[in-house]
Design a protein that fits this description.
The structure is a homotrimer of 159-residue chains. By secondary structure, chain A is an all-alpha fold. Helices cover 77% and strands 0% of the residues of chain A. Chain A has a single domain (15-158), classed as Four Helix Bundle (Hemerythrin (Met), subunit A), CATH 1.20.120.550. The first copy, chain A, is built from six helices and no strands. Chain A is elongated, with a radius of gyration of 20 Å. Chains in contact: A-B, A-C, B-C. Chain A binds chain B through residues 4-5, 7-9, 11-12, 15, 17-19, 21-22, 24-25, 28-29, 31-32, 34-35, 49-50, 52-53, 55-56, 80, 84, 87-88, 91, 95, 112, and chain B through 10-11, 13-17, 75, 78, 84-86, 88-89, 92-93, 95-96, 98-101, 125, 128-131, 134, 142, 145-146, 149, 152-153, 155-159.
Chain lengths: 159, 159, 159
């Protein structure tokens, strides 16, 4: 049993891996927040997509009018999809990067810029801020992931 | 060579990690099933989105009428996207959770509730069941992931 | 410190894991390329979705006409979403597979077919090639992931 515990806590004792775990949890929680925001806007804007979701508003035409798109709901949904498109590569490449033995300071710099960039991206998308606010925050996160991928391929390349 | 094998099977010998691997494989396979279902509904409902996909139905207008949306196809696609939005955080946070050394029983409880909740969510979405069936199954999976994220941040926090 | 480094480079010294890391980085970078392609087509086709993205084209109606969908943009976006739906299971199941101690040759075969299939899928989708080009490349990647999932469940099953 104690041997098992030792095995399981091995990676988690590594500081770079702990930093990776911290920032991955943060950006995935931030992404999950988009689901709640979508639900919030659907309910407050009364804009649904599934007929069964409007059943509580009555039957027939009185409920049907709530099956519609809403600009705010669609905006949150785009933010959510953009998170998926960018956070999935970060989580996958970041794991490999964390295991490739980078310096803690360098790794923290990558993780902090990525997390900060994605939080700014969400704010820029939802407020919304004038461009190039959203564009630049997207580029920052993208560049961090490219930098980690370069380091990973340098460390492990086996085709 | 044998040393390599030992290294590679190290994590896989840990019971919590084996449980994580089992349930992650199950929920990812469940998500992959959505692709097959989308294809099935596109073919049976004759509702396609790419012109090259309708070429076998003939040329010109006779094929063009199959470039349309269908309520069942769109419903499966929403289920698939909801899986992506929820299973990606489970896979990422669940891995960190499994490595943070939880009790096997506690970990199994988390993984089983999540997998069960997502299977129920898919059934509730596709049948469809009246609300709050789908809503509650979504909340159960979401809550499990939040609980794992809390444990991960408690165990590893390194900002 | 050196002990930490040793821990962190342990997995990365395993050849199967290095192969997994290489191909995972490649397919995630390929997926990230879809973001750049979407941006390229949005700018060259002048087809945007957010009002703040068209502000540089002037005010009022002169900018509003660029808030529209474009067939090429939508095609790239479908390719991107298809990548998410298929590369996420590969990255998750592939990690578990790499840790389950497969032969290096077998693992490389899986990873190479998957990466090749997804690159062909993108080309088939964007050129576009006549069917069943895209369909077959999709099936190849899907089958590889199923094969890895089977091996994972065989090796770790703990319900």
């Amino acid at each position: 049993r104690s041997e098992e515990m030792a095995k399981s806590t091995q990676l988690i004792d590594n500081e770079v891996f702990r930093a990776y775990a911290t920032y991955t949890a943060i950006v995935l929680l931030k992404m999950m927040l988009m689901s709640l925001l979508t639900a919030y806007f659907r309910v407050t804007r009364k804009a649904f997509v599934n007929p069964e979701d409007t059943a509580s508003f009555g039957k027939g035409e009185s409920a049907k009018k709530y099956l519609r798109t809403d600009a705010d709901v669609e905006r949150v949904r785009r933010t959510h999809l953009n998170d998926l498109e960018n956070i999935v590569p970060f989580v996958g490449i970041g794991l490999l990067y964390a295991l490739s033995g980078p310096e803690l300071g360098t790794a923290l710099l990558h993780f902090r810029i990525f997390a900060g960039a994605r939080i700014l991206h969400t704010l820029a998308y939802l407020i919304p801020l004038p461009q190039p606010g959203r564009g630049l925050s997207w580029v920052a996160g993208y560049a961090v992931t490219l930098s980690m991928a370069y380091r990973v391929l340098q460390a492990v390349l086996l085709l």
